[in-house]
Amino acid sequence: MEEIIGGEWKGFTFKMIERDDYPRVLEHMRNNFYLDEPSCRSMKVVEMEIETQDLDTIVLAYLEEGISFMAIDNATNKVTNLF
User: Taking CA atoms, which of 32, 33, 64, 74 is between 20 and 30 Å from 42?
Assistant: First the structure.
């Protein structure tokens, strides 16, 4: 897949999310979004493996559309944001 938008800015790399990135994206979602998102928190989703798997399935479906981007911290090589 050809990158449409991407590059570096102020210590971050911005790129389209590709299949090879999916494990990192899901890890970011599990460690950040699922923990902090109010609906997930109120339903205690993180404590229930089945619901987490369901959310992963939804995230993967959106990623397959090929329109999502990620920001990576160049110093730590960790995903810092998804959009």
Answer: 64
Residues 66 and 26: their CA atoms lie apart, in Å, by: 15
Give the pLDDT confidence of 56-70 residue by residue, as tens digits. 999 999 999 989 999
Q: In the chain, pLDDT over 70 holds for what percent of residues? A: 92
Element (H, E) at 72: strand 69-73
Cα(80)–Cα(66) distance, integer angstroms: 19
Residue 2 located in a structural domain = no
Asked if the structure places residue 46 within a domain, the reply is: yes
The boundaries of the domain holding residue 42 are: 7-16+33-82
- Smallest Cα–Cα separation from 80: which of 33, 40, 41, 34? 33
